[in-house]
Write a structure and sequence with these properties.
alpha/beta, about 400 residues, four-stranded parallel beta sheet
């Protein structure tokens, strides 16, 4: 990210911006060593916040957050010019329980095997060395902030933040919208939109269009580049602050999703109908679930033609097959609903939505066994290149092979 020049004959620049808890001003350090203080109208940090200081160096293209416990978090920040910042790094998506394993290994907690501990430390090291990307998702944020063990919640959140380094998996609902838009309305923009699924871009954990999330606006008089930097900084600090907040997050009400899918699976298990007929029923259910999103995408494109074509198609679900995330989501629904005796749990919706999205855009996905089997089979059926594992040691061995052949 380019630093902002301060108008002067010596072409001085801001080299460090610091916001400290308890201070009544933002401190700007200039390249000549002089400081300027910008008064704040009110306290930036809530009482439950665990952040003690945030420092931003424009030339470093990142920020450092320090916590009240003395821990530090380094975040990469997005570039205004849109330059590629992935730099050839492999993307490795860890399911929530695998992040807990990494956290326990780093802390030296009991119950982690020697092989898994070594693998977890290897992943953490590769992240710090910028050889891999371990993106965080809103699913991780949701699950972590709802954990009632306050010390465990802090340590897990800290681990995720330290090794994700600001990289995020975009909100799956937004990814689905982008995939549908590229397929139904604007195929030319598809590749560009798909590339944003694993990103440093601000405010991508929660979709502004799919969920109605409205981020805090930048001051109206900011020029474009400064407004972008402001948005990126606020987004990063908000993500860190939310993940580490000392107040326990509340789980939302049960939507009945698991119960509805259980009834549907039980119906499919009843005698009568071959597997092909059952697949058509599963497709019809998925298409119905996506009907509202298809209508919204069509409306945003300024035409109802896409929605009309979708509804007129005798097999609209086949349009999902080539889509990175939705194609895999369809496969997982088929796999689980066709598996006789499947038991649906409330957390399955989070697992399926995030894992299928991650597998559509990551190089490696690591998750627990019951999800790994259905996801891996879907990946094979669609001929995808994503590698899916259920333990860290196998994953690290596979990553090492790729790294060794590309260095």
């Amino acid at each position: 990210m380019h630093h902002r020049r301060m108008g002067s004959a010596d072409d001085l620049s801001i080299v460090l911006v610091t916001l400290e808890r308890g201070s009544d001003a933002v401190v700007l350090l200039r390249s000549d060593g002089k400081e300027a203080r910008m008064p704040l109208g009110s306290s930036v940090f809530e009482p439950t916040s665990l952040i003690s200081r945030v420092s931003y160096s424009p030339t470093f293209e990142g920020l450092i957050a320090e916590t009240l416990q003395g821990d530090s978090i380094v975040f990469e920040l997005p570039r205004f010019d849109g330059a590629d910042q992935r730099a050839g790094r492999l993307v490795v998506y860890l399911d929530q329980n695998k992040w807990r394993l990494v956290s326990d290994a780093i802390q030296g907690r009991p119950g982690v095997s020697a092989h898994e501990r070594a693998a977890a430390l290897r992943l953490a090291g590769w992240s710090e060395q910028r050889k891999i990307i371990l993106p965080v998702s809103s699913g991780h944020l949701y699950e972590t902030t709802k954990w009632s063990n306050s010390d465990g919640r802090y340590r897990l959140g800290l681990t995720i933040l330290q090794f994700s380094r600001g990289w995020q998996l975009a909100d799956p609902l937004q990814v689905w919208e982008d995939e549908l838009r590229g397929t139904l309305c604007d195929a030319k923009a598809r590749d560009e939109e798909f590339a944003q699924a694993v990103t440093l871009a601000p405010n991508t954990l929660h979709s502004p269009t799919a969920r109605g999330y409205v981020p805090a606006p930048s001051p109206a008089d900011f020029p474009a580049e400064l407004a972008f930097q402001h948005e990126a900084l606020v987004s990063a600090v908000t993500q860190i602050d939310t993940m580490l907040d000392s107040e326990l997050g509340q789980r939302g009400p049960d939507t009945g999703w698991a119960a509805a899918n259980q009834r549907f699976s039980d119906e499919l298990d009843s005698p009568g109908g071959d597997s092909q007929q059952k697949r058509k029923k599963i497709d019809a259910r998925l298409v119905e679930d996506l009907r509202g999103m298809v209508a919204a995408v069509s409306a945003s494109a300024g035409s109802t033609k896409a929605q009309q074509n979708w509804e007129a198609d005798s097999q609209p679900a086949l349009k999902l097959v080539p889509l990175p995330a939705l194609g895999l989501l369809r496969e997982m629904f088929h796999e689980r609903h066709l598996n006789r005796g499947t038991k649906w749990e409330p957390n399955d919706v989070i697992d399926m939505v995030y894992l299928s999205c991650a597998a559509g855009y990551a190089d490696f996905v690591v998750c627990e066994r019951h999800m790994r089997e259905s996801l891996a089979r879907g990946v094979r059926r669609l001929g995808r290149k994503t590698q899916v594992y259920r333990n860290l040691a196998e994953t690290v061995a596979a990553i090492e092979t790729v790294i060794d052949t590309t260095e």
